[in-house]
Write a structure and sequence with these properties.
Spore Coat Polysaccharide Biosynthesis Protein SpsA, Chain A, seven-stranded mixed sheet, 339 residues, 2 domains, alpha/beta, 14 strands, 12 helices, three-stranded mixed sheet
Amino acid sequence: MDLAKVKQPRTLIVTGSDKAHYALAADLAATFRANYGSNYQFAFLNFSPTELPGDLAGQFDAIVDVSADYHLFDKAMGYYTAFSAAKARLPELVPGFDCYCWIDADCWFQGSESLPRILQCVEDFDICIHPEYDPHYFKFPTPNPRTIAIYARNEPELDVELLHRPMFNAGVFAMMKSSKIWALWQAALADLRRRHQAGEDVYFSDQIPLHRILHTSEISIFPLRAIDNWQTYACTPRIDPDAKLLCVPTPPHEVIGLLHLAGQTKDLILSGEAGQRFTLRYRDVRNYLDGQAAFYAQALAATLPSTKSILQPSAEAPPNPRPNRWKRFRRALFQNSRE
């Protein structure tokens, strides 16, 4: 077979963010272009009613404004991606492609291997996505307290069996336009909007409804490996100063192709062998590995209280113990499952 004559699906890579995360999106875009050039079309969904800076806008082949409901949203409600159902509507928002691959803006590429691996079987499965299981994630609880809390808030009648199924990370996925998941996902997120408008206290997450869909419907899944969506919240990568790469911590130390700075790891400050401080953001990592100052880490460290002030709080500040809500949710949920 002449592979050059095999018709490839027309593929669109998509990311998006609000104004607060434009700097992360710029890192993703820079690493995407450095590793893939113009091999793929690249689109940006702008959640904020603001114009993208010119240098960032110039990285994308298409920019779509999805900020119509941004003024109705508050961070306490969850995620705007879920409130707007943006990920579930990619074929509608940017029509004309056979295949859609979403990459969260807090990701960055470390080479050119990940996208081909993510897309290699997309035509044969309903979805290609990473289950958050890996030997290096052993310190992170499964199910994690956040999953339990969101399910308890959104679905109090939940079949607890779902909590024992692996979480699928919606920060990176690929689907053909023909996948039946699009319609199921849109319906689930539309139901959250309806319940919110009716006055219910729901939490807008696109990942939790997708988790339920993938485990309760007849869905075919191609599982992506951790190196193609490395969850830095679950395991900090190993730094290879000689190769100037971030790798899997244990031998054979595979190179991580796509890092995902999920949650608080966007601002996690690490220390190098000589005491240098840096974050896992792309530009900080590059500066650290090139022997230069990691500017984001420096700026972030300047905003943090000193170690002394943390260890010796003011006597005027009374203790303010916080109940562990996640343990309470988990205890109640699992108690109900045994009754």
